[in-house]
Design a protein that fits this description.
CATH superfamily of the largest domain: GAF domain
Order of helices and strands: HHHEEHHEHEHEEH
Shape: elongated
Radius of gyration: 35 Å
Number of helices: 8
CATH class of the largest domain: Alpha Beta
Helix content: 40-55%
Number of domains: 2
CATH topology of the largest domain: Beta-Lactamase
Largest sheet: 4 strands, antiparallel
Oligomer: single chain
Length: about 240
Amino acid sequence: MKEFHAEDVFHDRTHEVPLLEDIVLNPDHVAEYLRKHPDFFIDYENLLPDLALPHHTGEHAISLVERQVSVLRARNRDVRSRLNRLLEVARDNDRLFQKTQKLVLAVLEQRTADDIVTAVEASLRDDYRVDVCRLLLLSDTEQQAAQQQIGTLLNNRQPLCGHLRPQEAAYLFAQASQPVRSAAVVVITRPHAPADEQPLAVLAIGSFDADHYQAGMGTLFLSYIAEVLSRTLARCDAGTH
């Protein structure tokens, strides 16, 4: 017959709390605790000088405070670098806005389509400093040749950036002093024109640098210029009929 003891009756071992000396801590436990209690060292700041970390150079050990200062300085440099990049982008956008505003005002002052072409190309050359540009008006006689040479571009009504086919570059930039290796192209149509309506013009901006205009580049300002030209050229076209 099994012998019973009092401790077996009054001591439920299934809910036994482990003794402190039985608890095994590992670095992950300590790290998790410190993550959950970031203010731990506020009450135990006297420990900070005793915590040493290896220096990045390997020359000597540094205290936790020194490491924190080092990390904060590195983060501060990173934040300053990012801020400087953002400021530079903002300055670039501001300069681009000023140039675009000047171009739009010049376009609005013109009375004929040919005058608009002259104003746009002059602004792109003088203000934007592009290598080569062309605003090609697509008259009835020009439409057939354009379809043969740049039909793929005409069928895509979204601004495009990247490399052109040789025949496309030759057609759009026939007067270029050297080969055009990348370009930004946008087709100009009437406002709210159906997809099958003939476009009014093509604005092409070329670069002798193959990497200057790349697929995926932002085309916000180019699209805005196209919208302005859409309305002004449509008005000129209507005035000739």
